[in-house]
Inverse folding.
């Protein structure tokens, strides 16, 4: 009896030590997970700034729209996966705010982590517990690539939640029972699987296949081969029966809707796919190293003696904490490498430029573009920002320029980057802007950005009935409803909107006569606008910019009589530089409309000419020294044909 009591006491002590070790391990896992997702949130909020995805809807073919009310919701109830798509559409709208976008992404990543961890735990694979972060890492890759992914990740999260529910409700069937009790448990588990499968497939569509596959893995792990067979057959038959036969969905969509392959983008796909593949390989290598370390540790422990294992368990709490510190460091190293390798800087910059331009945040546009953004759409946004900040005539050649980027008409059939159509609207080419935004709506759907601009255009044109249609639709959105309701009330009280400054300004510059929506060349558009309203400053400045980009300094100097319409006391810097080039090259005087040139501009052209002549007028030899001293001047652009070279 005494011996038995001693053995019992020793066994209880070992069990207590083991429980303590497990508690320390779980506590360490919770701390590591909390730190990881705090860093994840800060990265997606402050570094990636995911708000740009909301404003980049014109670059994503499947970015969803969302409206409040039953009619919109009812559309999602008519096909499998519709409810999951409805939730995804709602979550996508939350990207209107950067901090909220980061919160949504982090919540999804955390849900993926918790569900994966629970699945691994029920399978008894605690040594593979670190794999619970795999979903979060893939999600971080998507975010770093600025890819739309919610239709897929939302339904995957739903499928994993159903999986955890199934595992929780069938936990009793895993107990070591035999005979009729075991058979009854298996029947209940099979019935529950079928019920959850039917519901899940209706809610999440093709993501149900993930649920079926993981249920089959779990059954095979428990050597429940009948249940595993049921899961496999269910994964094959339920989409066909429920999707194809009942809802009439085509077989391809019945099995693939909401899966990763259904996520489509307009550009960056090939690079994104390669980076994702590389990151997955990196994660697999890291996982393999971790497994190898665990295998070595397990082998050493197995070769030890019982007494050695008991001694080790006494200090196991400290070892567990140390191991979690090491594992956390390894995890952050892997995640850091994944984020670094997957980050698509050029795409992110272009989306930020577009986002700020759509929101008319002009200083932010210039900051995001920097002095080396040479794409047509970036140049277009930069010139918008320079004009609206009063710096176009003074600083435009500090940025890359191209004549074809000044006014993008939309005739190239490229409907991306909606800010380029805002340029048309601001200039007064209202019909052209309306045509392009209407085509954008046909391609991308009733996005709030498009609805808002079409409502504004129709109010400018006094098409009150059409304006109210767009405003009523906009009033059902999440974040533009207040703007829409304000104008609905304003139209009822004052249909002319006679006191609205924005409407009045756009009406003052809009073309009054009927014209084609196509102006070729662009010079015709600016001259037509100035013919109707000589005080259209934007049209004048864009005309002067076009002349300078075309090196037509004679037309620049011949247009100075128009500048008196605006009452400016001085010529902008680049206009003065064009005057100097014209005077030095032709020897003809220029009538300055009662204004004088800045002596510093005269000095600059003399210094510029002196450096150029010192190299024997060899452009190739002189480009470096001239770029360092005069890279942001019109002198440099006129000679070399490119700009954006900082001093």
């Amino acid at each position: 009896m005494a011996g038995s009591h001693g053995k019992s006491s020793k066994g209880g002590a070992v069990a207590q030590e083991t429980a303590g070790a497990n508690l320390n391990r779980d506590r360490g896992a919770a701390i590591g997970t909390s730190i990881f997702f705090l860093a994840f949130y800060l990265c997606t909020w402050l570094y990636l700034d995911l708000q740009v995805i909301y404003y980049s809807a014109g670059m994503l073919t499947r970015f969803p729209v969302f409206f409040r009310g039953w009619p919109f919701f009812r559309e999602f109830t008519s096909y499998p996966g519709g409810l999951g798509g409805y939730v995804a559409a709602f979550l996508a709208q939350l990207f209107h705010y950067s901090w909220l976008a980061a919160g949504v992404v982090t919540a999804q990543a955390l849900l993926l982590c918790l569900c994966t961890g629970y699945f691994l735990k029920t399978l008894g694979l605690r040594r593979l517990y670190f794999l619970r972060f795999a979903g979060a890492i893939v999600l971080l890759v998507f975010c770093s690539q600025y890819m739309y992914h919610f239709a897929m990740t939302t339904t995957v999260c739903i499928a994993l939640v159903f999986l955890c529910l199934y595992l929780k409700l069938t936990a009793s069937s895993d107990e070591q029972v035999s005979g009729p009790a075991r058979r009854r448990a298996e029947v209940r588990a099979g019935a529950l699987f079928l019920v959850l499968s039917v519901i899940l497939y209706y809610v999440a569509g093709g993501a149900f296949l993930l649920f079926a596959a993981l249920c089959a893995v779990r059954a095979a792990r428990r050597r429940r081969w009948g249940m595993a067979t049921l899961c496999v057959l269910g994964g094959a038959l339920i989409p066909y029966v429920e999707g194809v036969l009942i809802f009439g969905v085509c077989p391809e969509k019945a099995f693939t809707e909401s899966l990763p392959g259904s996520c489509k983008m307009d550009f960056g796909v090939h690079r994104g796919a390669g980076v994702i593949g590389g990151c997955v390989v990196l994660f697999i290598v890291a996982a393999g190293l971790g497994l190898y370390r665990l295998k070595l540790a397990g082998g050493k422990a197995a070769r030890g003696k019982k007494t050695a294992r008991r001694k080790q368990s006494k200090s196991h709490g400290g070892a567990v904490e140390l191991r979690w510190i090491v594992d956390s460091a390894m995890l952050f190293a892997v995640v850091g490498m994944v984020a670094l390798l997957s980050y698509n800087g050029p795409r992110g910059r272009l989306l930020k430029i577009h986002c700020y331009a759509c929101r008319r945040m002009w200083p932010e546009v210039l900051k995001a573009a920097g002095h080396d953004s040479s794409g047509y759409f970036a140049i277009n946004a930069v010139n918008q920002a320079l004009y609206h900040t009063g710096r176009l005539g003074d600083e435009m050649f500090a940025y890359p320029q191209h004549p074809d980027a000044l006014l993008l008409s939309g005739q190239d059939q490229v409907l991306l980057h909606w800010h380029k159509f805002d340029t048309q609207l601001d200039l007064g080419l209202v019909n052209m802007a309306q045509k392009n935004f209407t085509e954008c709506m046909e391609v991308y759907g009733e996005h709030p950005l498009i609805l808002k601009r079409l409502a504004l255009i129709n109010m400018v044109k006094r098409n009150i009935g059409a304006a109210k249609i767009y405003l009523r639709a906009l009033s059902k959105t999440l974040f533009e409803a207040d703007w829409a309701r304000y104008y609905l009330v304003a139209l009822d009280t004052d249909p002319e909107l006679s006191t609205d400054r924005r409407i009045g300004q756009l009406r003052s510059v809009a073309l009054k006569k009927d014209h084609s929506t196509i102006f070729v060349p662009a010079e015709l558009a600016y001259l037509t606008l100035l013919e109707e309203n000589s005080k259209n400053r934007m049209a004048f400045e864009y005309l002067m910019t076009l002349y300078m980009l075309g090196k037509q300094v004679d037309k620049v100097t011949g247009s100075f009589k128009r500048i008196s319409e605006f009452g400016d006391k001085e010529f902008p810097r680049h206009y003065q530089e064009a005057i100097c080039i014209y005077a030095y090259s032709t020897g003809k005087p220029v009538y300055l409309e009662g204004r004088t040139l800045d002596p510093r501009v005269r000095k600059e052209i003399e210094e510029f000419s002196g450096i150029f002549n010192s190299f024997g007028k060899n452009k190739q030899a002189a480009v470096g020294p001239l770029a360092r001293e005069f890279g942001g001047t019109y002198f440099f652009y006129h000679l070399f044909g490119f700009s954006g070279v900082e001093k």
